[in-house]
Amino acid sequence: MCYAIPGKVVEIRSHKAILDYFGERKTVFTDHNVKKGNYVYAQGGIVVNKISKKEADSILCFWKRKFFELKKRDEILGKVKKRNSKLNKIFLKVKQKKSLVKKEIKTLLNAKKDDAVFLHSYANFLRKKNLKNSCCVHGIIEFSNYCRMNCFYCGIKNSAKIKRYRMSEQEIISAAENAVKLGFKALVLQSGEDLFYTKKMLSRIIKKIKNMGVLVCLSIGERDFDTYKTLYKKGAKAVLLRFETSNKKIYEKMKPKKKLKDRISLIKKLQSIGYLVSTGFLIGLPKENINDLIDNILLTKKLKPDMYSFGPFIRPKSKQNIELNLLLNTISTVRIIDKKSKILVTTALETISSKGKKLGLLAGANSLMIDVTPKKYAKLYRLYKGKFKEMKEEIKNTLFLLYSLGRAPTDLGL
Ligand code: 5AD
């Protein structure tokens, strides 16, 4: 099974390599010893692995036909049908590369019925135009559900009465090996804020996983600058850290004893270390309104994330979750105001609707995550209800979906 296409190095410019994928050229960073003519895998714009020509040839042989087949399908699905709508004026502004004002963003977020369909298809068109048909597929290993925090919204908060687990170092490594065997080239290591895993332990784990030839992304919450710096040196190159809400009052209510400004400052510090940072927010937290959503979108953009990660707040008890249409409108709005961004379809969106993944990808998103945590633990990692999915089924369904939409599960779009 392939989750990535190897690229051929056609040029080296100090720490940058220019890769060729069937005629498409991409520039990526490399600290690997690569030379012109080598074949490599890149993730998040970074070379993560070098492979032999023989291995590359056999994989490229599979992709050669498929690559162009998928592009054609994406081309057909990515066409926008012209429509008479108040949105046309806003799209024209976007075309002229002008920034949208809050009122216009609100109009996008509030689009309903035919207007919403039009909005999603325009965003999908922009995704295709700017980033082609690539879709990143990350694997996620949820290695501990212990958490020292008590965030109001979270199912694994410290005070939650749930069965807790911690995967051993060896279990984490084995889970990563398994994911690599299945073809993953980017792995997210996620846990509650669990200080049981020291800087030393995490360093060992990261080093081993990095050496498997994958991009290691951390999602372990707030740690001190020194820890994050060390983990970067050991080989973690990406971090997922949402600010959750840009509304200071709500933030401080949701996260007792925490300050929004400290979270934002950590995100910036992580970027200064060199991490690729994925950030974003929850949609529909209690007391949030549409203006907060607009501010959340604008704050994420201001932070210049390498990937947007936002999703619906799944209420622990009530079934009254946020409407799917608003979630899709948010994806489309982000695509429109930040055309070249990577936008993740979160698992929480799939919890709202079984078609969430497909609709999200057709509304402007271009990135996915698949849970590769061993089943016995994945079932216990319940940030919210209804999260667990059988891994093998999920991989099969995701690949089927991507191919049916004409998307190549690759990192090409960066
Ligand atoms: N609904 C949706 N997302 C949640 N998260 C935590 N609890 C919930 C919930 N109830 C998200 C947070 C966190 C990420 C790891 O999981 O946004 O950043």
Count of runs of 4 or more consecutive helical residues: 15
Q: What's the shape?
A: globular
Percent strand equals 15-25%
Structural class: alpha/beta
Q: Write the element-wise H/E pattern from the N-terminal end onward.
A: EEEEEHHHHEHEHEHEHHEEHEEHEHHEHH
Mean pLDDT: 93
Strand order of the main beta sheet, please?
12-10-9-8-7-6-15-14
Bound molecules: 5'-deoxyadenosine
Q: In this structure, how is the largest beta sheet organized?
A: 8 strands, parallel
Residue share in helices?
A: 40-55%
Low-confidence stretches: none
Kindly state the number of beta strands.
Answer: 15
Rg of Cα set: 21 Å
Separation, N- and C-terminal Cα atoms: 22 Å
Task: Report on the architecture of this protein.
Helices cover about 40% and strands about 15% of the residues. The protein has 15 helices and 15 strands. It has helices at about 55-75, 85-95, 100-110, 115-130, 170-180, 200-210, 225-235, 250-255, 260-275, 290-300, 325-335, 345-350, 355-360, 375-380, 390-405, and strands at about 5-15, 15-20, 25-30, 40-45, 45-50, 135-145, 185-190, 215-220, 235-240, 275-280, 280-285, 305-310, 310, 345, 365-370. Strands 12-10-9-8-7-6-15-14 form an eight-stranded parallel beta sheet. Strands 3-2-1-4-5 form a five-stranded antiparallel beta sheet. Strands 11-13 form a two-stranded parallel sheet. Helix 5 (about 170-180) packs parallel to helix 6. The structure holds 5'-deoxyadenosine (5AD). 5'-deoxyadenosine binds near residues 154, 242, 244, 313 and 383.
